[in-house]
Every structure is written in structure tokens, then in C-alpha cells.
């Protein structure tokens, strides 16, 4: 009996306690599926649209709601211009055809059901813009993967929201952005100055991947508490100060 209790406890701890959300507040989300693509939710998700939203399935595109799924307003083709909600039940998905797109409007958002994962595949470009924090899993861009935020942390492996695009992925937040991994032909991480959200998280174990990595902030920690220059070939501020101090000591 004691062994059974331990097994049950371990399973409970291993399972997510609540669904994940793309943003901690309203988001503006734009996904271009000009060549087709998919958005899938393994255990269900709710996509919220604000005024100015749009859901275009494209030529040959299909919407699978899944068990308990719904769309509001319930019209065919979908009309989210005045706002609305799309509830994808377990195994729900959107298969975008040629010319497909998703625009949430300024008051949009994506919230997952418990133990669900959401995967966007085949998009040409993806843009996420929010005043609140944004939480992502894996980002893979054929073009530029760009993240701009007051705080950027690439060590979060908890978010099950993954984005894949043949072109660019652009994520902007006035607060924080967390992600599990990011890759692209070019990766640009930018923390505007002055910043108050902590700058960059530890990048010693999960640094940007891709052909070229450009950091838009003067410093990014290579190890906890050890800032280094973000620009390739440039000397960091601490390095310059150390050299200047060494020069003064030699003169004495």
C-alpha cells in the first residue's frame, strides 16, 4: 500500500497542475499561413479574439473542434472581426490552407487546458506583442527569431507552446519573455535600456542557437553573475575597467 501511494504521488507531481497561457494578459497575435500550416492542441485550448480579429482557414482549410469544442460567434466561415472565442477540445486543430491566417486583435490570447500542448507549424511569420509577460516553449524560425522584452529568460522548460515558422518569429513584451529554446538563421535578443525587469537570465546552458546570434543589449551573462560583452569581438565594460586599473598599477 505504501508503495502504491508513492507511485500515485509521483504521478501527481509529474503532471502539470494547471493549463498554460501564452501571455499573462491580453496579446496581439498574428500568424501568417500563406502556404498552409497547422495549429494543434493535444488536450484542448481556448483562443481569444478581440475587435479586429480574423480567422481565415484558406483554400482547403479545415477546423476540427474536438470533444466539447465550440466557436463563438458560430458562423461559417468564421468571423472574429468583432471579437470571439475558439475552444479546441482534446485533439482539436486548425488545418490552414493556402492564404490562411490568424489575427487575434489587441485583446487576444491563447490558454491551454491542463496537460495540453499547442504546436504551430508551417507558418510563414508569427508575431506576438503584449504589455504582459509572454511564455513560450521552443521557437524555430527559418528567418529571424527576435525577442524584445524588459527581461528575457531562456531557461524555462515548462511552457508547452511551441512556434515554428519558415520566415520570422517576432516576440515583444513590455514585461518578461521566457522560452525553452530559440533557433533561427538569425537570433536577436534585445533588452532595451534602461531596463528594470532583470535583463537577461542565465544563458550558460541554453544560449541562442542558429547560424548567427546577435544580442541587442550591451551585456548578457555567460555564467551566473559574470556579465560579458554581447557584441562579438567587443570588450565588455568590466574588462575595460580592469585593463585601465591594471595600467594605473603598472605606472606606480
Provide a concise account of the structure shown:
The protein has 252 residues and is mainly beta.
Averaged pLDDT, please? 78
Question: Helical amount among residues, as a percent range?
Answer: 10-25%
Task: Show unreliable segments.
Answer: 1-17, 202-213, 216-246
Number of strands: 22
Radius of gyration: 21 Å
Element pattern in H and E:
HEEEEEEEEEEEEEEEEEEEEEEH
The number of helical segments is 2
Shape, please?
A: globular
Distance between the termini: 76 Å
Largest sheet: 8 strands, mixed, barrel
Q: How is the largest sheet built, in terms of strand order?
A: 1-9-15-12-18-13-16-10
Structural class by SSE content = mainly beta
Strand content: over 45%
Sequence-ordered SSE layout with sheet pairings:
Layout: H1 2-14, E1 27-41, E2 45-51, E3 54-56, E4 62-64, E5 70-72, E6 82-88, E7 92-103, E8 109-112, E9 118-123, E10 125-130, E11 134-135, E12 138-141, E13 144-148, E14 151-153, E15 161-165, E16 169-173, E17 176-178, E18 181-190, E19 199-200, E20 209-215, E21 219-223, E22 226-229, H2 237-251
Parallel strand pairs: 9-15, 10-16, 11-17, 12-15, 12-18, 13-16, 13-18, 14-17, 14-19, 18-20
Antiparallel strand pairs: 1-7, 1-9, 1-10, 2-6, 2-8, 3-7, 4-7, 5-6, 21-22
Characteristics:
252 residues, mainly beta, 4-stranded antiparallel beta sheet, 2 helices, 11% helix, disordered N terminus
Amino acid at each position: 500500500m505504501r508503495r502504491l501511494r508513492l507511485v500515485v504521488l509521483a504521478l501527481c507531481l509529474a503532471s502539470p497542475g494547471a493549463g498554460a497561457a501564452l501571455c499573462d494578459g491580453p496579446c496581439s497575435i498574428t500568424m501568417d499561413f500563406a502556404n498552409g500550416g497547422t495549429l494543434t492542441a493535444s488536450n484542448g485550448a481556448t483562443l481569444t479574439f478581440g475587435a479586429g480579429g480574423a480567422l481565415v482557414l484558406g483554400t482547403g482549410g479545415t477546423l476540427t473542434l474536438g470533444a466539447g469544442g465550440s466557436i463563438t460567434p458560430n458562423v461559417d466561415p468564421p468571423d472574429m472581426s468583432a471579437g470571439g472565442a475558439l475552444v479546441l477540445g482534446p485533439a482539436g486543430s486548425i488545418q490552414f490552407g493556402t492564404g490562411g491566417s490568424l489575427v487575434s486583435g489587441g485583446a487576444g490570447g491563447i490558454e491551454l487546458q491542463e496537460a495540453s500542448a499547442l504546436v504551430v507549424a508551417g507558418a510563414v511569420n508569427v508575431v506576438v506583442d503584449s504589455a504582459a509577460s509572454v511564455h513560450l516553449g521552443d521557437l524555430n524560425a527559418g528567418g529571424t527569431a527576435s525577442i524584445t522584452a524588459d527581461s528575457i529568460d531562456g531557461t524555462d522548460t515548462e511552457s508547452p507552446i511551441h512556434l515554428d515558422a519558415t520566415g520570422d518569429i517576432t516576440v515583444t513584451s513590455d514585461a518578461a519573455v521566457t522560452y525553452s529554446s530559440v533557433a533561427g538563421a538569425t537570433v536577436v535578443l534585445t533588452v532595451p535600456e534602461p531596463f528594470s525587469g532583470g535583463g537577461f537570465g542565465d544563458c550558460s546552458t541554453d544560449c541562442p542557437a542558429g547560424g548567427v546570434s546577435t544580442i541587442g543589449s550591451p551585456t548578457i551573462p555567460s555564467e551566473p553573475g559574470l556579465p560579458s560583452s554581447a557584441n562579438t569581438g567587443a570588450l565588455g565594460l568590466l574588462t575595460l575597467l580592469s585593463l585601465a586599473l591594471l595600467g594605473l598599477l603598472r605606472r606606480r
